Amino acid sequence: MTVELIYQIHERQPWDETLFESLRGFALRDPKNAWNDLVAMAGHAQFKKLYPDFFKVLLQLISRSHNADMALHNFERFSEKISDKDYLYTQLTESPSLFEALVFLFSGSQILTDALLKEPSYVDWLSQPGTLANSKSKDMLMRDFYEMAGEEFQGKNIFSVLRKFKKREYIRIGLRDLLGKVEFKETVEDISNLADVCLQAAYEHADRELRKKYGTPVYQD
Length: 221
Description:
By secondary structure, this protein is mainly α.
């Protein structure tokens, strides 16, 4: 039945009640809406020719995710955001671990999903081998913040960069938890380290600005 179902997706066939049980078999509780998402995605690229196994893998992944309907709908929303869709589907086809990570993110946290939808380019960062592999020390987080900030480190937009950095790291931390890569204690430590680094960066900026305005503090006994 899976072969026939994939064929119907590739052909973008209209909804038919005979599809109900097939889609329910992939843990989809609302098959009709799920079909709309699948057909919409099928129009993004020449899947039958270029990515023939994409939908088979997608259905398998969402069936064991936290929420199949949520995963599929968010996946469709995300893919719609990407202008170079062939790049996206090639990337997912060549990186099963990234494919799985996105499905679990989209199925497990709407807040983190919405954060990624606002910055789809973070997918390239998530695809890097070291991003999801290990926790980050404060030194590593500070280094990553400096790298993201670039010339803005001493500029007026530092707090905007800090917000983006915090959201990006929350995606990493939350996704590692959703994938079952960490214990609760490690997740808490990651969040604590991130909070400390954000406070430190904000303090350093405020200190620089005050020194520019008032000069170096003079301490008296």
